[in-house]
Amino acid sequence: MRRIKPARVRQLVFGVYMSGIMSFLMSGVITFLNTGIDAGFPARWATAGLVAWAVAFPLVTFIAPLAGRLTEGTLRLFES
Asked: What whole-number distance in Å separates Cα of residue 58 and Cα of residue 42?
């Protein structure tokens, strides 16, 4: 039986939290700017948040390693 690597689990858990928090906040702001706040706002926000999370989670999961490499490369430029 294969064990799941702790680093991979950490990456997935991080992706769930990061994408969820960012999707929730950004969809709320954008929904507010586009439609304002009224009785239907919570339902519109929830729908937008779920759609945003469905897109954001895979992107965060797969793009985070690339962002880490780009960060390391950028910081190396300033070490010299």
From this structure: 25
